[in-house]
Amino acid sequence: MSDIPRLRILVTGGAGFIGSALVRRLVANPRHHVTTVDKLSYAGNLESLPGVLTQTNHRFEQADIADADAMRRIFAEAQPELVYHLAAESHVDRSIDAPKEFIDTNIIGTFVLLAESLRHWQGLTGAAREAFRFLHVSTDEVFGSLGEQGFFTEQTAYDPSSPYSASKAASDHLVRAWHRTYGLPVLVTNCSNNYGPYQFPEKLIPHLTVRALAGESLPVYGGGANVRDWLFVDDHASALETVATRGRVGETYLISGRSERRNIDVVRSLCAILDEERPRAGGGSYAEQIAFVTDRPGHDFRYAIDASKLESELGWRPTRTLEDGLRETVRWYLANAVWWQRILSGAYRAQRLGLAEHAA
Fold first, then answer.
1. Measured between alpha carbons, how far is 237 from 336 in angstroms, rounded to an integer?
2. Annotated catalytic, 324?
3. Is 164 labeled as catalytic in the residue annotation?
């Protein structure tokens, strides 16, 4: 990272899964000073920032991005040259059960952050004004569902299917509007499914890992034929750093691990790795615990990203195949049971979400 300039950086959602991976990466460069903002909702966890909180080039602020007064104070104190915006409610099933939280954070929160970023940027002059960047981190789910062929590109029309993806689509549009209307120097990224260490155990891979170890059923929606494109979280963090420091203002870059798999194949691979790394006490395979359950409402069939623009323009490539990344992830969860056991003993108890029985 020696070629990356010294920067004052603000990261929203920095105690979340992707945000914490990015913060750990940024703080490892002593030339940076990083301010992490997170309201520490159910998925925000300071234990995902081991060793970071005591570093002299890092400070943490517990705040809601929808709180304009708090954001104004933080901008005034941090004086960021680069903003990474990752704070978001991000779980599709939770958005089905409680969509209002997604509107409040993903849309209203993004609006407030854009307003304060614009105020801050307009107060800058000269080289500081020219260098400022706002990177908005989004998802491929804003594009809706693919058939068996084709890929999402930067030109794909938006077609969100869930309250979560609709709220992220709205935030993407707000960010681009602030660039086109006010000139705010923004970049947008849309990524494929992330996985890796420190992921909150409601997402597919950690959720099923924890359930497998507990001897519980491994629920798979429908027949498991839905396809996702998997991206190791540390690869995503490196892509974000690349886009923020080398990407063209106003542009969108799609990020992919180029690891497209059916859900059932991911689950079976996970079981096979667990069979090797932590054999079942009673023998047999963890795959025997797989149970197919009723599909969730609006479940997109397939996501797949063509990341050629990012690869050709900025030279970024993923470093891990799904097979290597999945094994690394499983080993991390096996070695860090205390981390996820503390989560499971709290608000989240691995209950089934996304049945659309409540939408408050």
1. 21
2. no
3. yes
Catalytic residue among 38, 81, 164, 221: 164
Side-chain-facing half-sphere of 349: CA atoms under 13 Å: 3
In this structure, which topology does domain 8-195+230-257+298-319 adopt according to CATH?
Answer: Rossmann fold (3.40.50)
Catalytically annotated residue among 38, 64, 89, 141: 141
Neighbour-count burial of 182, counting CB atoms closer than 10 A to its CB (0-12 exposed, 13-18 middle, 19+ buried):
middle
Residues 336/337/339/343 CA torsion (nearest 10 deg): 160
Bridge-based pairing state of the strands 218-221 and 227-232? unpaired
Determine which one of 140, 229, 234, 260 is catalytic.
Answer: 140
Strand ranges across the sheet with 58-62: 58-62, 33-38, 8-12, 82-85, 133-139, 186-191, 252-255
Condensed to tens digits (0 to 9), the pLDDT of residues 84-142 reads 999 998 777 788 888 999 999 999 999 999 999 999 999 999 999 999 999 999 999 99
Q: Is 277 a catalytic residue?
A: no
Domain boundaries of the chain, sorted by first residue: 8-195+230-257+298-319
